[in-house]
Every structure is written in C-alpha cells, then in structure tokens.
Amino acid sequence: MQILIIEDEVRAANQLQNLLRALDFDYELLGIIDTVEESTGWFQRNQNPDLVFMDIQLADGLSFEIFQKVQLQCPIIFTTAFDQYAIRAFKVNSVDYLLKPIQQEDLQQALHKFQRSKPNVTLNPETLHNFLASMQSTEQREGILVKEGDGFAQLRISDLLYAYSEDSITFGITQHKRVIIDETMDELCPTLDSNQFFRINRGQVVSKTAIQKIAKYFNHRLILTVAHSRDQEFIVSRPKTNDFKSWLNR
C-alpha cells in the first residue's frame, strides 16, 4: 500500500505515522509534502498513490488549490483542525476526513472505510468543479470581531489594511489603529475576499489597496512596501510569488 502525506506540520505528520504503525497498517510512505506548489509538482511527475492523507491548510494555501492544477484519481483522507473545512472536504467526495488532533479510533474507522470502498472512491471531477465554484461564490464576511478593552468590537473588513501573527496573537492594522483579532491566521484568511486580500506568507495577509510598491527580493521572492507598515517587512514567500503576481493582474 503506497501512501502520500501532504502536511505542513512536522509533528502532525509524525503523529499520523505513529498511529498508522500502532494500527499495524502495512504501507510504503512515498513522501511528506508541505506546500500546494510541491504537491502539484509531485502529482505531475508521479503516478497516483493508493491513498493520500491531505491537510487542508498548507504552508502556501489551501490544498483544494491542488485540484485546480492537476487531476487526481486516488482516494483522499483529509485532515484538518477546523470543522468548517472538514465539512467542505467531505463534500468533495473524499474517502473521509479526520479532525486534529487525530485519534486512533477515528483513523481506524477511516481506514476501514477506505478498504471497503476501494478502488471505487475517488474524487469526482464534476463534484469537485461544483465545489470549487461554490467556494469562489461564497458571500464574504463584512466584519471581524476584535478585542477592545474588557470586551469586543466589530472591525469592518473594508478598513483592514493587513493582518499579521506575532507570538500566537493575530493583529489587524487600519489607517488609525492596531487591533487584536480574536482568530488565528488560519481561521481568518480563508474568510477574507480573495480578490482583495492575499496571504503573502504564513504570518501576513495584505489587502490590495494597502500595497504601495513591489520590488524583487533575493531567492526569487518579492518585498512589498505597505501602508502603515509599522517597520515590518512584507516578503512574499517563494512558493506564493507566481500566484501573487496573478492575483495582482485580476
């Protein structure tokens, strides 16, 4: 049994392998990949494995983007820390999904489902197309809950210039102030309008209107000048550079 693990957290990938061994699951690991870009390249160069374990939130975006670039004909078990993604993944017609931290009993049930269903369970192209279309047409949120004194307030999305993570805290910047957003970056970014906001790296997301200048940076990356930057550097990670350029051309 050949499997591929697509996961950007080393600890989570190791835990999954430990659980598989504990269940005496006989498999050959083809590799562990942590980005959308590398996953796309792997599938373009290799035959489909027997089974893929795929995290939904990867280092350079959502794993659903892989399906827009390559056609997969293999069963997939999605893994995610967020229920909202788990529901979406299940609708893509995967074998199953597992919520993190993965429990041995849940993994065992997913493997039993896979073994009963194979080789008939693969991603249905029509289902996937409809799913991606529904994601792109989903109405975007208008406000963000932020901390204010001992309570909370609502920040309008239209006022947000950029957000970043520091010491496990998510900060949002407007023209007039810095606020603490009551969400992680992984929770916040997928809910923002992808036409207006781009997650340039793991810890920063910027609005198109806040970008003042774009320059080349070493190692094929880009560096941005952003309004009200508070002395921060805004560097577009290498895996995201091409997608960032395409985003700017929309």
UniProtKB/TrEMBL annotation:
Keyword check for Transport: no
SMART domains, alphabetized: LytTR, REC
Coiled-coil ranges (or none): none
InterPro entries: CheY-like_superfamily (IPR011006), LytR-like (IPR046947), LytTR_DNA-bd_dom (IPR007492), Sig_transdc_resp-reg_receiver (IPR001789)
Modification type 4-aspartylphosphate: residues: 55
Record-annotated HTH LytTR-type domain positions: 144-250
Keyword annotations of the record: Phosphoprotein
Location of the Response regulatory domain: 2-115
Pfam families: LytTR, Response_reg
Annotated GO MF terms: DNA binding; phosphorelay response regulator activity
Annotated protein name in UniProt: Two component transcriptional regulator, LytTR family
Organism listed in the record: Flagellimonas flava
